[in-house]
Amino acid sequence: WFNELICNHTLDGVALPKEIKIIAACNPYREYKHNLQEKSWYHKDPLIKYVYRVFPLCQTVKAHLWQFGSLSELDERQYISEMTKDRKKELKACAQAIFDSEAHFIAEKIFKSQNFVRTKLQDVAMVSLRDVERCLKIFVWLVNHYVTGNCNSDCMKQCLVVSLGICYYFRLNKSKRKNYTKEMSTNTENFLDILKKEMEKFSDAFYSLNTEIIAETEALEEILFMLFICIVTTTPIVLVGDPGTSKTLAFQLLKDRLSEPNIKELQKKLQEQGINLEIKPLHV
User: Fold this and answer.
1) Which GO terms describe its molecular function (predicted)?
2) What letter does residue 57 receive in the DSSP assignment?
């Protein structure tokens, strides 16, 4: 029916009115450029080698195909700049004045993150404007809920670092993380130092509730931090990792800490770390 609709302008043999114009969009049927043999389970999925999980179009439809391509660097930078400026109205009043002076800095850091991930992971489809939207969503939420008292430039940059960490940094391997840290750091501020400081605030509050012995590994700390931020900001996240990388343990701990009996104590511990969040119990 799709072929008939696009090519013949009919449906079940019945011609459509001339006033009806059919427009369709599809993802490209294109293979990844990077090495997919790094993971042994890839060969079990016939569609895993493609950027999008799609099947090829039939030949008759291809005759009507127009290649949109991808955004140029200039276009992407302009999109990111406008998307960033548009978020001002969502910020609390005390943050809006500071935001005006930081908007260009924020947009540039996001643009550089997009370009870094796209380049290092060797495929243009590794990032899109959805990643920008996700990063800005988390940033706005953190500024509005995470920052207490008067918001200043340093607070805003801390929120940006956390947002960039969630959306870009944590998806990279160790060697690429080092390069990304250099790219995001300034002469006076180290990206990773700021991110780790914010993670430690959360983990100190989280682990202080432990009644059992848990190895506080770097992997567990990262996963807990990512899951917590994504839960409170209602941001979808998919965790992918080898067995034994604390994924299940992280879920179990979060389920326990965010449950009705423990939520108030967690909020109290977070407040001791300077994090004032109103958190609703997690219902699972």
Assistant:
1) ATP hydrolysis activity; ubiquitin-protein transferase activity
2) P
- Return the pLDDT at 163: 97
Rounded Cα gap, residues 273 and 202, in angstroms: 8
Burial environment of residue 133 by CB neighbours within 10 A (0 to 12, 13 to 18, 19 or more): middle
* CATH number 1.10.357 given to 70-189: no
What's the pLDDT tens digit per position in 228-238?
A: 899 889 899 88
Q: What is the pLDDT of residues 129-158, one digit of tens each?
A: 999 999 999 999 999 887 666 778 888 999
User: Whole-angstrom Cα distance, residue 28 to residue 104?
Assistant: 32
Helices 73-86 and 129-141 cross at an angle (nearest 10°) of 30
pTM: predicted TM-score of the whole model, two decimal places? 0.80
- Which tokens go with 274? 């300077």
Q: Tell me how many helices (H) and strands (E) the chain has.
A: 11, 2
Q: Hey, what are 252's tokens? A: 């179990």
Tell me the two tokens of residue 272: 């001791």
Q: How many CB atoms lie within 10 A of CB 162?
A: 22
